[in-house]
From TrEMBL:
<keyword id="KW-0791">Threonine biosynthesis</keyword>
<dbReference type="Pfam" id="PF14821">
    <property type="entry name" value="Thr_synth_N"/>
</dbReference>
<dbReference type="Pfam" id="PF24857">
    <property type="entry name" value="THR4_C"/>
</dbReference>
<keyword id="KW-0456">Lyase</keyword>
<dbReference type="InterPro" id="IPR001926">
    <property type="entry name" value="TrpB-like_PALP"/>
</dbReference>
<dbReference type="InterPro" id="IPR004450">
    <property type="entry name" value="Thr_synthase-like"/>
</dbReference>
<dbReference type="Pfam" id="PF00291">
    <property type="entry name" value="PALP"/>
</dbReference>
<comment type="similarity">
    <text>Belongs to the threonine synthase family.</text>
</comment>
<dbReference type="InterPro" id="IPR029144">
    <property type="entry name" value="Thr_synth_N"/>
</dbReference>
<feature type="domain" description="Threonine synthase N-terminal">
    <location>
        <begin position="2"/>
        <end position="80"/>
    </location>
</feature>
<dbReference type="GO" id="GO:0009088">
    <property type="term" value="P:threonine biosynthetic process"/>
</dbReference>
<dbReference type="InterPro" id="IPR000634">
    <property type="entry name" value="Ser/Thr_deHydtase_PyrdxlP-BS"/>
</dbReference>
<feature type="modified residue" description="N6-(pyridoxal phosphate)lysine">
    <location>
        <position position="112"/>
    </location>
</feature>
<comment type="pathway">
    <text>Amino-acid biosynthesis; L-threonine biosynthesis; L-threonine from L-aspartate: step 5/5.</text>
</comment>
<dbReference type="InterPro" id="IPR036052">
    <property type="entry name" value="TrpB-like_PALP_sf"/>
</dbReference>
<protein>
    <recommendedName>
        <fullName>Threonine synthase</fullName>
        <ecNumber>4.2.3.1</ecNumber>
    </recommendedName>
</protein>
<keyword id="KW-0028">Amino-acid biosynthesis</keyword>
Length: 462
């Protein structure tokens, strides 16, 4: 299995190399050169299996000879061991024909744990074998950083540094990053906004001396291994509703297009998915693009679903690559146009996208109203991101095809928005009820590349 860049001008890599590299050297994203498919019989045979065994069967063909079957089974077992629900990704019914896939039972209460826990174990296994060490660095507005710290804490072959904007993450998110006591974890509270954190991380990758010196590695959502881990729950949930005999549709609250792109891969692997519905908040660039073809960023407006407040949806490049017939030059051209303000998807490519993807948006008021109404009609407390999904899903229900909406975070991760909508303040699950009593460890830094790099050097040397 080879991995190729969406811009067509970087070397082909193996699974392991693509995972450790992240972004391709031509600025593109790695994708498999061919997508392995499962027969109807293979899919039917997933019925009743554990989440871990399903994960093994879905992901195995993408790994090539990176790990033996036994090694990979052990990696998966360790990855999902810390989840708070035996089913890992349980499905609950909201209404006739409408189901909610709860992806928030991982250690940091957001779906990002599914991919990050796996990637942590994959990195550790790969680096232990090669004897290398790497430095993981990431910028976060909250969920990615906490998931990364939880996944990499205490591992021997990595140091992990997470930059978050000082005073601009929720208290639960901050504490999830600052309370782990493992010496290889470093939470940096940066004077500035998320964009400043992201810019400093980019600067580090462009500082080639530093990059080589500390062996910098990235685990942001463009990492192919993260996408792959998310393919699994599309299969497990669809099979529990009757696939492959019955089709299903999915609605996915979307920011960087990573989670929904995993659904697209599941469909290419042979899962009978009817529609994939893109659900955005008021930052609706993807909804506008899928409706009109015009992809024009116009400024982030902060919302109550902050993990979807994005302007540039990085994984969208992967689906454009397919929509343009896997023409890397065409994709590189679009990304050049994006630098000077935006691009318009060609008629043919837009048709290709609209054949599969539907889309919709939820305003702030609609999101709050959905949290309130679902509490009343089902007893389910939704986080604001999941509520965006439910609202858009309801507009796209088809009586003939069950709809599965992805619930991407636990309501307790966004207690203010949930309380404002319902009057109820959601509590943390018992296994982390002491989060507010744990000691915090955090380093305050200025928004200054040299200062941050010096701090990192000092920590890595010790
Ligand atoms: C990251 C995140 C999203 C968006 O996921 P993408 O893969 O970027 O589309 C949605 N909801 C929550 C809670 C998240 O943390």
């Amino acid at each position: 299995m080879k991995y190729i860049s969406t811009r067509g001008a970087a070397p082909d890599l193996s699974f392991e190399q693509a995972m450790l590299t992240g972004l391709a050297r031509d600025g593109g994203l790695y994708v498999p050169d061919t997508i392995p498919t499962l027969s109807e019989g293979d899919i039917a045979a997933l019925a009743g299996l554990s989440y871990e065994e399903t994960a093994f069967r879905i992901m195995r063909p993408f790994l090539g000879d990176a790990f033996t079957d036994d090694e990979f089974r052990e990696i998966i077992a360790k990855a999902y061991d810390g989840f708070g629900h035996a089913a890992r990704a349980p499905l609950v019914q909201l209404a006739p024909g409408h189901f909610l896939l709860e992806l928030f039972h991982g250690p940091t209460l957001a779906f990002k744990d599914f991919a990050m826990q796996l990637i942590g174990q994959l990195f550790e296994a790969s680096l232990t074998r090669s004897g290398d060490r790497v430095t993981i660095v990431g910028a976060t507005s909250g969920d990615t950083g906490s998931a990364a710290i939880e996944a990499f804490k205490g591992l021997d072959a990595v140091d992990v540094f997470i930059l978050f904007p000082h005073g601009r993450v929720s208290e639960v998110q901050r504490r999830q990053m600052t309370t782990p006591s493992e010496a290889n974890v470093h939470a940096l509270s940066v004077t500035g906004h998320f964009d400043d954190c992201q810019a400093r991380v980019k600067d580090m990758f462009n500082d080639f001396d530093f990059r080589d010196e500390v062996r910098l590695a990235g685990v942001n959502s463009i990492n192919w291994a993260r996408v792959l881990a998310q393919v699994v729950y599309y299969f497990s949930s669809a099979v529990s509703l009757g696939a492959p005999q019955r089709k299903v549709s999915f609605t996915v609250p979307t920011g960087n297009f990573g989670d929904i792109f995993a659904g697209y891969i599941a469909r290419k692997m042979g899962l009978p998915i009817d529609k994939l519905v893109v659900a955005t908040n008021q930052n609706d660039i993807l909804h506008r693009c899928l409706s009109t073809g015009a992809y024009k960023p116009d400024g982030v407006i902060p919302s109550i679903s902050p993990s979807m407040d994005i302007q540039v949806s990085s994984n969208f490049e992967r689906v454009l690559f397919d929509a343009y017939g896997r023409d890397g030059k065409a994709v590189a051209q679009l990304m050049d146009e994006l630098k000077s303000g935006g691009f318009t998807v060609s008629q043919g490519a837009l048709q290709h996208l609209q054949d599969l993807f539907l889309s919709g948006r939820a305003s702030e008021e609609e999101t709050s109203a959905t949290i309130k109404r679902l509490r009343e009609t089902t007893g389910e407390l939704l986080c604001p991101h999941s509520a965006v999904g439910v609202k858009v899903a309801e507009e796209n229900l088809d009586p003939a095809v069950p709809m599965i909406t992805l619930a991407t975070a636990h309501p307790a991760k966004f207690p203010d928005a949930v309380e404002a909508a319902t009057g109820l303040r959601p509590g943390l699950p018992p296994r982390m009820a002491d989060l507010f009593d744990r000691d915090e460890r955090v380093t305050r830094v200025e928004n200054d590349l040299a200062e941050i790099e010096d701090f990192m050097r000092g920590k890595i040397a010790n």
